[in-house]
């Protein structure tokens, strides 16, 4: 055991962020904290780090255990070099100077950091990488990461995943990047209405089990409320209550009232809807050998592409490759330095800017949405601004608050509210997922997926890209753009299956590759030779359903055992053995399903 919370409480204003919670983390665990914006996830990390003391209860960290934290806030500005910032992570750590220097050199080499550059002059992504080096140099037994993928491009996120999978200590992190959580987490802990619940497995496992739990909770609350209403009717009869002298029933009613008052209902979901404008023309954008240069620097070159009404296009590439520049070029905010760009007719653009420049931070929340008007036209009807903003989880007391007082996640929600208050047939989203909690992100995902107009999306969220786009414009950092039909995972699979084509992309001089060629390359694999099921395979196929049912039932039993809040207070050998069995069983079930699909395909191909 490295870390334990015992009945810990933390109050912010009149609202408990943590309400007498228990938590324990063992060696080599990778635990992700999830929950809505404002629930207290970052505060929980600061409790672990000792930055914030609990209002009640105790936080125990194994004596002598080294702990390091990567903060979400990157406002640390210093004149120090990267080398000096990393070296600062060894402050207070015992050891010889030569040993310290060896650690610093190892980390700088491993993370490929520019040792002599000034920290303040680095991009957000590189600063995060340096601060990670500062955290790792102390060789911590407990590493805390708060939204580590913010400001990172996809290649940097994948690099971070690889580094964290090799990390030998315990990892406690907060992240809204679902693919990142899926690849790293061995357990998900949800912070919901002041309580912590533990869910073994990755994010997908958590969603499946949490959905079932919420359904059960809703049914139980409905039954409780019905019983309470019946008891309220009984007590109001008065005469019957006094005549029967049923004081026990009266006491039970008072307890039910207290229980109902103490129940903190789950925070409502953001209600998102985009008002769609009239159809645009069939042609939305057409670029022919278009390029953009800033001085001697050629950011984009030779772009030839045609975007039509209804296309759903993701724009991906490393930081600094020109993704936002490409958006501005297409929208006409930048004129091409070479070539031409044609724009279609009847375009009504809703543009989400990652810098949030469309927000007036000195203006109130309501004025940012409706420019001082009391009503917002939504779907042909006028809605009062307070009701409209309530859909985006803004409280009435926040309407007159300056936008500058909002958190990062709240500013994102405000920008979304402003964006969707205007009719549009072209939705342009430049990194919309930063600072959004997963629930809001998934609702935004549903909205974007159902939008009937044209979509241009810049994002480093691989799950988001996979779910909402049908083709990609890939910027690979050399000024050129490659077109590809499919989502991010399709692109990754294609690169793995076509290494020669992928490596050639960095050397190509033309930026245009017909997406049909990409699809043809993927589809050119040799056909699988048909093979009839043998007697042994047929028997295996027939027995798999019963085998899977037995394993699934055992897994349900283990899931229920591990989900018990008191599970981690049991004997550590029992905890370890149970988690080991659950992990092994999950792998066996996955393997069995894969084998079943394989045998089913073989059988179908010969039927």
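Q: What amino acid sequence fits the structure above?
A:
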């Amino acid at each position: 055991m490295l870390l334990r919370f015992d009945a810990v409480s933390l109050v912010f204003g009149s609202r408990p962020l943590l309400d007498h919670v228990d938590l324990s983390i063992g060696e080599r665990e990778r635990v992700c904290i999830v929950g809505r914006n404002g629930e207290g996830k970052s505060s929980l990390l600061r409790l672990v780090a000792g930055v914030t003391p609990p209002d009640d209860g105790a936080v125990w960290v194994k004596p002598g255990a080294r702990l390091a934290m990567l903060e979400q806030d990157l406002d640390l500005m210093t004149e120090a070099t990267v080398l000096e910032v990393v070296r600062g992570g060894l402050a207070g750590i015992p050891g010889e100077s030569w040993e310290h220097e060896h650690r610093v050199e190892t980390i700088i080499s491993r993370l490929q950091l520019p040792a002599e550059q000034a920290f303040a002059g680095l991009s957000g992504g590189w600063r995060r990488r340096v601060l990670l080096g500062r955290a790792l140099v102390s060789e911590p037994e407990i590493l805390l990461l708060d939204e580590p993928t913010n400001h990172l491009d996809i290649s940097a996120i994948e690099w971070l995943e690889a580094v964290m999978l090799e990390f030998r200590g315990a990892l406690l992190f907060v992240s809204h990047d679902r693919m990142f959580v899926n690849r790293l987490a061995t357990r998900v802990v949800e912070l919901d209405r002041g309580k912590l619940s533990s869910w073994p497995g990755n994010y997908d496992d958590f969603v499946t089990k949490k959905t079932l739990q919420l359904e059960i909770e809703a049914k139980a609350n409905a039954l409780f409320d019905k019983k309470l209403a019946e008891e309220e009717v009984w007590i109001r009869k008065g005469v019957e209550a006094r005549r029967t002298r049923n004081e026990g029933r009266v006491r039970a009613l008072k307890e039910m009232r207290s229980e109902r008052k103490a129940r903190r209902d789950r925070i409502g979901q953001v209600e998102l809807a985009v008002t769609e404008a009239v159809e645009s023309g069939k042609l939305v954008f057409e670029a022919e050998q278009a390029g953009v240069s800033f001085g001697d620097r050629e950011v984009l070159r030779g772009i030839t592409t045609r975007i039509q009404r209804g296309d759903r296009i993701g724009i991906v590439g490393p930081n600094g490759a020109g993704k936002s520049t490409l958006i501005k070029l297409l929208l006409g905010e930048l004129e091409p330095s070479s070539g031409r760009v044609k724009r279609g007719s009847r375009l009504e653009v809703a543009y989400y800017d990652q810098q949030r420049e469309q927000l007036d931070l000195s203006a109130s929340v309501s004025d940012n949405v409706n420019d001082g008007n009391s009503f917002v036209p939504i779907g042909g009807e006028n809605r009062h601004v307070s009701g409209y903003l309530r859909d985006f989880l803004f409280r009435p007391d926040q309407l007159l608050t300056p936008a500058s007082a909002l958190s990062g996640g709240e500013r994102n929600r405000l920008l979304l509210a402003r964006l969707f208050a205007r009719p549009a047939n072209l939705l342009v989203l430049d990194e919309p997922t930063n600072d959004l909690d997963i629930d809001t992100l998934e609702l935004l995902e549903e909205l974007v997926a159902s939008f009937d107009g044209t979509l241009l999306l810049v994002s480093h969220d691989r799950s988001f890209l996979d779910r909402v786009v049908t083709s990609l414009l890939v910027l690979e950092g050399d000024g050129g753009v490659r077109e590809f039909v499919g989502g991010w995972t399709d692109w990754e699979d294609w690169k793995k299956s076509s290494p020669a084509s992928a490596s050639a992309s960095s050397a190509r001089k033309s930026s245009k590759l017909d997406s049909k060629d990409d699809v043809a390359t993927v589809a050119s694999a040799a056909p699988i030779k048909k093979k009839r099921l043998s007697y042994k395979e047929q028997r295996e196929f027939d027995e798999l359903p019963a085998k899977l049912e037995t394993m699934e039932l055992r897994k349900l039993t283990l899931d229920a055992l591990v989900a018990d809040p008191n599970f981690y207070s049991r004997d550590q050998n029992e905890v370890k053995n149970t988690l080991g069995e659950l992990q092994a069983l999950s792998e066996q079930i996955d393997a069995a399903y894969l084998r079943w699909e394989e045998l089913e395909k073989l059988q179908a191909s010969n039927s």
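Q: And what stands out in the fold?
A: The chain has four domains: 3-207, 208-262, 283-348+423-523, 535-605.
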